[in-house]
């Protein structure tokens, strides 16, 4: 039996401009600067086009064998960062997208969405809840870190 597909969406607002947010988000080596303790270490394994974090870039976030490898699949400067999970996990076909939209009154709206198919039937709902909570925290950390720059 094929697993079900699940989605999530998290919205945050930052006082920072889209370019500042995008620079932090798209450079995989910088995630540990703003995403601790969720992401204690981060590195860029492969540069993308454009460098460093464009399409094809592979980042590793997390420690040792527990680290995740993610590849950039969408890169629209200061607007969109899309990625897929390369590391085997309880999810299949995971994709995340972070949309950055400038606000008329200054700052940026952040919409971080994603989808995946459960690998083991019956595990998707819990995985989606945990993932949404983690992404909500990451989106908030990204917003605050960009405001400090």
From TrEMBL:
Coiled-coil regions listed: none
Superkingdom per UniProt: Bacteria
Signal peptide: none
The name this protein goes by in its record: Polyketide cyclase / dehydrase and lipid transport
Organism: Haloechinothrix alba
């Amino acid at each position: 039996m094929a697993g079900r597909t699940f989605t999530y969406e998290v919205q945050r607002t930052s006082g920072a401009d889209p370019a500042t947010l995008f620079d932090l988000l798209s450079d995989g080596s910088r995630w540990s600067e703003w995403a601790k303790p969720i992401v204690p270490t981060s590195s860029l394994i492969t540069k993308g086009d454009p460098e460093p974090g464009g399409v094809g870039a592979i980042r590793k976030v997390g420690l040792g064998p527990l680290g995740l490898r993610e590849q950039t699949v969408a890169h629209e400067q200061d607007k969109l960062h899309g990625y897929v999970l390369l590391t085997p996990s309880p999810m299949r076909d995971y994709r995340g997208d972070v949309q950055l939209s400038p606000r008329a009154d200054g700052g940026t709206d952040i919409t971080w969405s994603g989808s995946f198919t459960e690998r083991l039937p019956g595990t998707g709902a819990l995985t989606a809840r945990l993932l949404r909570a983690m992404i909500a925290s990451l989106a908030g950390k990204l917003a605050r870190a960009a405001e400090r720059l």
